[in-house]
Every structure is written in C-alpha cells, then in structure tokens.
C-alpha cells in the first residue's frame, strides 16, 4: 500500500468523491493523465455500496503487492476525497492488479456524465 | 469537491455505472468472474515465470510470439516461434515477429550484440494483450503489445520503432540498468527512443535527412490530430489534440519539466537527450548508425554510467567516448559537445 492514507477505504456518503488517475505508459499524454472523478452524490445507495466493495478489493490488492516501476507499465492512483477535497484514503496499483470494473469506470466517460 | 472531467469526444462505447450497482446483473457477474480469473492468472505468472530457450548461435535470434487473446495473461499462447517463416496472416503476430527480427539484426550487425543480454536471450513478445488495450511495455522479462482501442490508437505493433523501443528497455536493464525515475529514467526512455529510431532507419536504409525522427508514427488513428507519440527532431510538436492535449516534451534544459507525474517526467524530459542525439546525427550526416549510434551504444555499456546518472553525467561520457574513438577536438568530438550545448547541457572536459 502506498499513498497518503492507507488501510481500507472509508464508507462513502453523498459528499465523497473518488478520483482515478492513470500514470505511466509508453508516453505521457496529458489528456489521458488527468484524474477522472466519480461523485458519490450522483450515485444511489446501491451504487455507492458497490463502489465501496470495489475499493475494498483494490485496497486488498494494493496491500498484497507494491506497485511495479518498470518500463512503460501503467499504474493507477485511487483516492477518496471528502466534501472539502481532503484526501481520506488513497492507494496505488499496477494496472494489471486493478479490478476490471474500476478500469471500466476510468474508461467510460459517457457513464460518468450520467448521474 | 471537484467535478467530473468533461470531455469533448467520447471514445469508447458507454458501459457501466448503473451496472456497477446491480450486483446481480449478468454483465457484473461476468466482470467479477473475469477479474477473479485475471487475478489468479496474475499470481500464477508471478509465481512461476519461465524463460524460453535462448539462441546458442551468435547472429541468430530466438523469437517467440505469444497471443494473450484479449486477456491479460502472460505470456499467453505461443503462436509463432523462430523458424516459422510463413506469415500467419495476423498482422500483430507477424509485425511482432519481423519487428523483433529487425531489432535483433540492428543490434547484431551494427554493435555485435547477441540479443537483449548479449548471450542469446530469447525475444519473447505477447500481442493481443487485453481488450482495447492502448499501450506497450517491457515487464522485465518480455515485451507486451496491446491492440489499441481503434478510436485513438491502432495496434502497437504497427510501428517498428515501438517494438525496438520496448526491446531496448531490455538491453538497458542488462547494461546500465538506469533507474526508471527522474533524469536517469528520462535517459532510459531516450535511449529506447534513440535505438528505436535507429532500428527503423537501418531497416529502411535511410540517411539522417531522410528519417522522420518520429517515435510511434502510425499509432494514432486518423481521428487524432498528431503525427506520432514523440518527435526527436522537434520535441513538443508530435501532437496537439482536443482530447489528448499537447505533446509536453521539452527540447532544451531551460524548459525542463519538474514533476512528480510520469515517474518524474521520464517520458517528458527525454525530449532533451532525444534532441541532442538528433542534433549530433544531423551534424555528422550520413547514416546515424555509423558514428552517432555506436557512440551512444558505447556509453550505454560504459561501466562509468551508473543507475542514477543524470543528463550531465551521460553527456560527459558520450564526449569521453567520442574522444577515445575519434580523438579529442576532432569533428565527431566537437559535434557531440555542440549537440549537448544545443540542448542546454554544458559538457566540458
């Protein structure tokens, strides 16, 4: 586990926000390196619960293995912020260790527009 | 609280969000199952890596191309091995096989190097890695290439210099083992670009003025406003796209980017030594693999190059190698000195 605040993720309420940031790869492409956000006020209770399950799984995997610093490999930085933008929890994982649903969330821009 | 990222152009079909909530949906179950399987496979790979047979004959490569079949399992199924001369008809498999061959041939014919470790190490590559996977990487033992998402990126084997770039990361690992962060990491990246470009120029028989000096030309689809991932001749000019942003590479130390991102800017500040190499090659003229390439190769193998060497240290060693090979104060030595001065790295000796 690495990051500002380790351990398991906090419970998510409507003021929570998840940031997903992808780093590394064969090139640094600014538009793809920006964090993408999932605001919990746009999720219903069941979605927040599911998101928490995914973050718990991510935390478990992050605790198992340190991120790899290898040529052109990508890592993900996850963080939960509170209403004031303070980081409550964060973790880093190799791309191959990321739960697939979180990868899809990072990729799915259209989905993030719905709330 | 920050809002979500607004983008001007969606580039992948909409999935999820509602689906992540409904724990009982078929898609979710499939995802969860897939994730679990991938996780088990990842651990299996970590626990039991094995290397294919190396080449015992100097001058002859040992290539092994695998397909991950859109999964993220490494190395995947072996689909083409050394001696399988008939093309498979699968572009990624065949490009990887021939790209590895071209890269091996460059290192052997110009530097006398017998594969990644100079002891005939098998060249193993996996293609069709992941689904819509837009990256290529070296994992410490092998090369991995995604198919791209088809929207922004084509398959990553399409560019010979990308294949050579990844293989060169293996060479670097077996030589200077430059730390993958900050200036040492930018040197690592730059060396991979330099030899990536040299492999392409050698394959095409190009003189320096004929080469495009681009890295990853052909990777972007026509939807992207850009020529390639990087330009060695003019760092910062490779792309400027509404979604991808603008190529962030500097070409001079005055524009050096201090950042925590990208392992301290390894793919950003590599533009500076990239441009130094380009300046040197253009000054010398002819084929870049005749003088400039061997100088950079000699420096990579130089025992004085340390894992945490910075630009200044690397530049000083290139100058010293130029002195040893061509004489201090000679044309080549002056060209090396001026190339580094041209990017703001002052070298004196």
Low-pLDDT residue intervals, each spanning 5 or more residues of chain A: 109-115
Mean pLDDT of chain B: 88
Structural class of chain A: alpha+beta
CATH architecture of the largest domain in chain B: Orthogonal Bundle
Helicity level of chain B: 40-55%
Oligomeric state of this protein = heterodimer
Q: Strand arrangement, largest sheet of chain A?
A: 2-1-3-4
Q: What is the rounded distance between the termini of chain A?
A: 31 Å
Q: How many helices of chain B?
A: 10
Report on the architecture of this protein.
The complex is a heterodimer of chains A (115) and B (349). Chain A has 115 residues and is of the alpha+beta class. Chain A has one domain. Helices cover 32% and strands 24% of the residues of chain A. Chain A has a four-stranded antiparallel β-sheet, covered by helices on one side. In chain A, a hairpin with a 5-residue loop joins strand 3 and strand 4. Chain A is globular and about 40 Å long. Chain B has 349 residues and is of the alpha/beta class. Chain B folds into two domains: 112 residues, Roll (Elastase, domain 1), CATH 3.10.170; 161 residues, Orthogonal Bundle (Neutral Protease, domain 2). In chain B, 41% of the residues lie in helices and 9% in strands. In chain B, helix 5 packs parallel to helix 7. The N terminus of chain B is likely disordered. Chains A and B meet through strand 1, helix 1, strand 2, helix 2 and helix 3 of A and helix 1, helix 2, strand 4, helix 4 and strand 9 of B.
């Amino acid at each position: 586990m690495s990051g500002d605040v380790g351990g398991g993720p906090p419970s998510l309420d409507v003021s929570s926000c998840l940031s997903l940031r992808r780093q590394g790869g064969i090139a640094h492409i600014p538009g793809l390196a920006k964090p993408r956000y999932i605001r919990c006020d746009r999720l219903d209770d069941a979605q927040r619960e599911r998101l928490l399950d995914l973050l718990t799984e991510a935390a478990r995997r992050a605790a198992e293995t340190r991120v790899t610093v290898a040529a052109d490999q990508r890592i993900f930085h996850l963080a939960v912020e509170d209403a004031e933008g303070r980081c409550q929890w964060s973790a880093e994982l190799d791309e191959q260790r990321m739960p697939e649903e979180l990868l899809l969330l990072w990729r799915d821009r259209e989905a993030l527009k719905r709330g | 609280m920050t809002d979500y990222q607004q983008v001007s152009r969606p580039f992948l079909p909409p999935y999820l969000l509602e689906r992540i909530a409904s724990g009982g949906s078929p898609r979710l179950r499939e995802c969860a199952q897939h994730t679990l399987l991938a996780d088990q496979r990842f651990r299996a790979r970590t626990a039991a890596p094995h290397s294919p047979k190396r080449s015992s004959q100097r001058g002859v490569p040992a290539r092994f191309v695998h397909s991950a079949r859109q999964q993220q399992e490494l190395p995947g199924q072996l689909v083409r091995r050394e001696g399988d001369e008939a093309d498979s008809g699968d572009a990624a498999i065949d490009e990887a096989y021939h790209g590895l061959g071209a890269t091996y041939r460059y290192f052997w014919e110009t530097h006398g190097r017998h594969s990644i470790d100079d002891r005939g190490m098998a060249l193993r590559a996996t293609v069709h890695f992941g689904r819509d996977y837009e990256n290529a990487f070296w994992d410490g033992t092998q090369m991995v290439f995604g198919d791209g998402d088809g929207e922004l990126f084509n398959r990553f084997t399409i560019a010979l210099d990308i294949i050579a770039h990844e293989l060169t990361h293996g060479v670097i690992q077996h030589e200077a083992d430059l730390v993958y962060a900050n200036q040492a990491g930018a040197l690592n990246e730059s060396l991979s670009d330099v030899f990536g470009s040299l492999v392409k120029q050698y394959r095409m028989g190009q003189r320096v003025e004929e080469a495009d000096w681009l890295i990853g030309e052909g990777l972007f689809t026509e939807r992207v406003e850009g020529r390639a991932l990087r330009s060695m001749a003019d760092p910062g000019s490779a792309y400027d796209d509404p979604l991808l942003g603008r190529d962030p590479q500097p070409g001079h130390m005055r524009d050096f980017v201090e950042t925590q991102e990208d392992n301290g800017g390894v793919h950003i500040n590599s533009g500076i030594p990239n441009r130094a190499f380009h300046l040197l090659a253009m000054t010398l003229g002819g084929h870049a693999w005749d003088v400039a390439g061997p100088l950079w190769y000699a420096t990579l193998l130089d025992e004085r190059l340390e894992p945490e060497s910075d630009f200044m240290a690397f530049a000083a060693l290139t100058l010293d190698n130029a002195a040893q090979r061509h004489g201090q104060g000679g044309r080549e030595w002056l060209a090396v000195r001026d190339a580094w001065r041209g990017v703001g790295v002052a070298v004196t000796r």
